[in-house]
Write a structure and sequence with these properties.
4-stranded antiparallel β-sheet, 9 helices, 22% strand, alpha/beta, Arc Repressor Mutant, subunit A, 5-stranded parallel β-sheet, Rossmann fold
Length: 246
Amino acid sequence: MDARRQSIRAYLRRWTESAGAQLLVVDPADDESGLAEAMAGHGVHVTWVGDTLDGLVEFGRIDPHAVVVAPDAPGIAAGDFVTRIRRHGSPYVIASSDGLGDGARGQSDAIGPLMLAGASAVVLRPYAAQQVWDLMTHAPRSVADHATLEVGPIELDATAFTVRVGGERIADLPLKEFELLRALMLASPGVVTDEELREAIWGASERRPGGNTIAMHVTRLRARLGDVAVVRRIRGRGYSLTVDSA
């Protein structure tokens, strides 16, 4: 069971990095609450940096759906950071707070410049994934599109590990076949190379098998999908998934 759980966690990390919504956290504290791993379950990839200067770099690199900013992040002032990133679009900015205890007045004074600069909400430290997710659902850019993939009649939900065909849920796929289908759907109708499939299914750190093992999983996936899709082997290149457009 532990091995399967670890495999699922590794899969979620790979999936969110390649296809998930993006959340940038600018906070000098460590991710003690496990936000990054928990958000992967919502199809959100978390990039965590410790200061606002690195935050500017990562903001330009990943174009996040939302940004969480701690008022005490070093570098340029957090309010100035928010002003700068809002010049490049309209990111959904969330100010972080340590709560409303004895230092409530100080917290309010620290958050104030972020709200004036354009922050739209406040989240408490340590960050709770469900609270962050609830806030992200109000962002101008939808995050729902990153929870599912659709190719023709096939719909794959990477957070619930379910596959529906024509609206009907099919029997749960084994994890390797689920990852294989996900990789093919992301590229459809293009070709996914054998090396890309090894990376998608087994990751970079695990021992990765040869083409015969991939072919075995493809054969099983074809049987599960039946005639709703065609998984073709392109000799010397890889595999592609196509559906009838009629």
